[in-house]
Structure formats: C-alpha cells, structure tokens
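Lab channel / #folding
Pinned by the channel admin:
"Please post every new chain as: sequence first, then the structure tokens as a reply. Keep commentary short and put observations after the output so the thread stays searchable."

First post following the new format, from NK:
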Amino acid sequence: METQDTNYLQFKISQVYNEVNKVVVGQKYMINRLLIGLFTNGHILLEGVPGLAKTLTVNTLAKVLDLDFQRIQFTPDLLPADLVGTMIYNQRTADFEVKKGPIFSNLILADEVNRSPAKVQSALLEAMQEKQVTIGDTTYQLDKPFLVLATQNPVEQEGTYPLPEAQLDRFMLKVFVSYLDKDDELEVMRRMANVNFKGDVQSVLTKEEIFMIRDGINRVQMSESLEKYIIELVFATRRPAEYGLTQEANFIQYGVSPRASINLNRAAKALAFFDGRDYVLPEDIKEISYDVLNHRLILNYEAEAEGVTSRDIIGNILKKVAINN
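Reply from TO:
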C-alpha cells in the first residue's frame, strides 16, 4: 500500500473520531478500542456501570461507518430463535420459510449480554466464531464485516449468567469503561439538558475503505524480537514461577489461551497504524495487553479473597518480562 493511500485512510479514521465526538463526549479510549475490533475482525466486550454512553457510542459508530446495525437487549427469557431467526409456516404456500433474526447485520450490540441463558449464549457463540448461523437444516453465512459489541453491567448481578470462559475467549478485547472527568461530564450535562439536541452525524467510511484499512494494518511490520516478546508474555501467565512471579503464581488458576498471542499481534499492529507507523513498538504491545489479557486470565479464589485483580497480575508481568533482542 502506497504512503498516499495510508495517509488517506488515517485521515478517514480521524474523521470517524470527529463525527462520533459530535454526539459522544470524552470516550476516545472506548472508541479507539471499538475501531481496533472493527479493523482487525475482533469482537469487543464493554464493561462499565450504566450511563457511560456504551450503547450510544456503538449506535453512533454504526451511523458514521454506514453499516447495518442491530441492538439486541438480552434478557433471561430470550430464546435462540429471537437472535438467529426461525422457520415459520406459510399457510398460503403450505411450506416453511426462514425468518432471519437480528443477528443478520454488520454491527451487533448485544446489550447486557450476561443476562441471557446458556442456549442463547451458544447461538451467539457460533455466530461470533464461525461467522455463520444455522436455522433448521441450513447454514447461512453472515455479512462482512460482522462485529459483536457486547456490554455487561458489573454492578447488578441479580438475574445474570456469568459468561463461560470459552465465550469470553472469543472476545478480542474486554474494555473497562470508566467515569468521565469533570470537564467532560459538564459538557455531557450541557448537551443533554438541551431537549432539542439531535447529534446528527455523517457517514464518512465505506465498507470498501474498512477492508482497505484492514489490509493496511495487516501490512504493518513486527520484528521477531517483539513477536517473541508476545509469546513470553503469554507463557508468563501459564508458568509464572519460571519468570520470577512467585507471588502471582499463587493467584493464577489458568493462563491465557493461544488466542491471546494472536490478538496481541493484531491489536498492536492496529495501534501502530492508527499512530501513522508501519512498524510496531514495544509500547503498542504493552498498551493493549490489559485489554487483550484481562478476561482470559483466570484467577482462583485466593486472588478474590486478597482483592487481587487480573489487571494487577498483568501489570506485574509487564514489569517482569523483558524484551530480548
């Protein structure tokens, strides 16, 4: 890809930020992570208390990207057919017809995904992993790009179903959405206090350009030493004692899966591309490590009793594991 094309695509990415910021205030970190998922073909799990504009951000992003968008509110009584569709009987033709569900879209907002039971989670899992769904005896391919952006509320646990580790592993990133600072919250209050505020946005990116950006990210170079650094980080979660992490070894039940190393590579390249570089720096890997690893690192009850979080463990791993040239 020529430099001119790269500069054009990076300009388009900056336009996406500008358009989304017309509606969403102070959530550049979340928007950045959502774009990483979109441009590297990875699903995103957003976790944060209510009212932090998670749903609004995803909805606005879909408009700016001119993609088909569906919001699915997950509830305990949701059925797989409500998600993927079902066979319905047509009395006029005396035959069964396929009625496709809301999963047949480009961007899926799975709102409060941890409120649905296991059968629904299983149906969503096939769509996320295989990019296809099965209705009756027929398998249907989903449109491209296809991205699941799921939210979950960490506060209210009544009536929720914790996501299985296998499904958590399918999410490229788990992003913790935090409160705004005072200035941003002031701006939100001023905007939303105006009952006439519409927040209209323009579409600035086409599907073709999305795939061009994917191709550009794929061309970003990563040195062999950084590739090995990713492997060392991953193995430090599996064999912490061998890396001098004796205290952390007491808290880790299972290390991260091979998907962690794949997604660290992809996400680091995306960060480099967003920054206008065609090569990855160690800082790219370190920055994205928390989002890639935090939901894949399974801690034991002792960690919970001591108040140790996966982010604490990841921070110590990043301090301990060195880059070997």
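NK: The first helix runs from residue 3 to 20.
TO: also worth noting, The radius of gyration is 21 Å.
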